[in-house]
Amino acid sequence: MIAIAGIVLAAIIIAFVLWMLLTRRLREKYAVLWLVIALAVLIAGIFPGLWEALTVALGVQLPSNLLFAAAILLLMGVALHLSWELSGAEEEVRRLAEESAILRAESETLSERVRRLEDRAGEDQGER
């Protein structure tokens, strides 16, 4: 029964990720991670004895301990990847804010120069 639940869960994850990709709600680089997770769940559902074999091969006492260790490693990997993406986004926001401030200062300088030139042109026409 657990194997069937794993297969159904994997199918739901794959369908949901593909739907999000098609509707442009999820970028490809994030979809790959979720598709790999779904395939791992699918393989575990199709071959339920795989966890026991891995448990023996790795010297872990219980398959559930191996599953929890794998889940913790996966979550740490996702957290690290998202931290990396967030750092890049923060750098981009900082760069764009600096560029915006420079452009605003240049715009204000040019506006001031245009105002002075218009004032000077108005004074010149007033003298004539």
UniProtKB/TrEMBL annotation:
The chain crosses the membrane at residues 6-23, 30-51, 66-84. This is DUF2304 domain-containing protein. Residues 86-120 form a coiled coil. It holds the Pfam family DUF2304. Keywords: Coiled coil, Membrane, Transmembrane, Transmembrane helix. It comes from Microbacterium tenebrionis.
